[in-house]
Specification:
Elements (H helix, E strand, L loop, with lengths): L1 H48 L14 H22 L3 H16 L1
């Protein structure tokens, strides 16, 4: 009799797991399809709001001061990068040796 109970409990547990997994898959697919339809409708609204005519790109004229500022910033950034990448350990040793030679005279 105990074999029958263990068999029935195994069938019950496995069928309950199968049922819950199938229902959760069904719910997730319905939620996923709803989300996809919602995103499609949002994209359609965005497309309908955007202008349909393809015009040539418009270039803004830059002010001379903005160009000078950009060049200044670029050169300043190059200087800072050079300063961070420079190896000053050898140069400080040479400077210390030169100072010590100067004082030793």
């Amino acid at each position: 009799m105990s074999r029958v109970y263990s068999f029935l409990s195994g069938v019950l547990v496995s069928s309950a797991l199968a049922y819950t997994s199938i229902t959760s898959i069904g719910l997730s697919t319905t939620n996923l399809s709803k989300d996809l339809y919602r995103q499609i409708s949002l994209l359609d609204q965005i497309d309908s709001e955007s202008p349909t005519s393809q015009s040539s790109p418009k270039f803004e004229e830059r002010i001379f001061s903005d160009t000078v500022k950009d060049l200044w910033n670029t050169e300043f950034e190059k200087g800072v990068r050079w300063f961070y990448e420079a190896d000053f350990s050898g140069k400080t040793f040479d400077a210390a040796r030169t100072v010590s030679d100067w004082f030793s005279r």
